[in-house]
Design a protein that fits this description.
Length: 167
Amino acid sequence: MRRRSLNLLTALSLLVCVAAVALWVRSGFVTDTLEINLGRNDIEIQSFHSRCVVMWTRSLYQPGTRVRWESFDNANGGYSDFRSKDFGRFDARWWSFRDPDSTSLDLAFPHGCVAAVAALGPVIDLARLRTRRRRHAGSLCPTCGYDLRATPGRCPECGRSAAEVGA
């Protein structure tokens, strides 16, 4: 069950990595905005000019629930929220509007960071798979990696028997 969960997380991580790279390439031409309104909480994710900006706003004046996706052509000036147009590569800001009940947290980061973090899962999984295959193919103990050719009955390093090891 644990292995299946890890495989599912690895596949999801790879999907996020591919999506981040696709948005990264697309952000040079198009500004994409995903807005999710959940009552008082508004989450907006913008992708433009090789960076991603996530904005969370809490306000008393946003009733209802809706999801909206918009795309704007960067050649015609594009679109960016008044808060996100002056972000640097890495940035975090806390906004407090005139209304004391409305606040916002904005985070900006390059698409490459999302792709790199999302690629960690598949890279670690491939490294584990390679190590596991190498240990089984070369008559190495799968627990500690000790060479079992000289001691076929039991692993002298960790104590596993040959029946457990499968040598």
